[in-house]
Automatic annotation (TrEMBL):
Pfam families: NLPC_P60
Keywords on record: Hydrolase, Protease, Signal, Thiol protease
Residue ranges of domain NlpC/P60 in the record: 62-183
InterPro entries (alphabetical): Murein_DD/LD_carboxypeptidase, NLP_P60_dom, Papain-like_cys_pep_sf
GO MF annotations, alphabetized: cysteine-type peptidase activity
Protein name as annotated: NlpC/P60 domain-containing protein
Family: Belongs to the peptidase C40 family.
PROSITE patterns on file: NLPC_P60
Amino acid sequence: MTGCSLKNSDNSSLSSQNGEYIFQSASLENTIKQRDMKFKKYKEIMKSNKSLDSLSYQNERIDLDLDLFDFYSEWEGVEYKLGGDSKSGIDCSGFIQKAFKEKFNLSMPRTALLQSQVGKEIDKSQLLSGDLVFFKTGDDINHVGIYLEDGLFVHASTKIGVTISELSNSYFSKSYWKAQRIID
């Protein structure tokens, strides 16, 4: 079993209706807007051939952030399918495996349980973009996502497919298990 479950979760913090987002959280809406502004500025800089060093961002992981948001935008809304690993359906550990292979050329194990043994365990307070966040969603079942920033993570949800959720969501808050740093 690949280990993805989200059976009794609260409604997602973000849903899409006719291509328009409905935010159930002002902080999520603000984070998405900030991400969009960063991405727009990044595109402008790349077009003008300026160095990323000229940005006023203090976040040294901006390339990683943008790679993750780029990957998310390619997969956003893809339906959940247990054992799936394509755009016709993907599960949480398959999503992690694809993201790390395509964006960072890193091979990851196929199951959430095995992925939870890769890298270095870190405290929740130390989370950075690219860290894996794990959840105990049942006796044997685990769920995994990729931390983005500001309490948000991207994952393949059994209810709505590939999405961004908040760690502070009551379901994820109570089922949070641990975090692993894969990329230093």
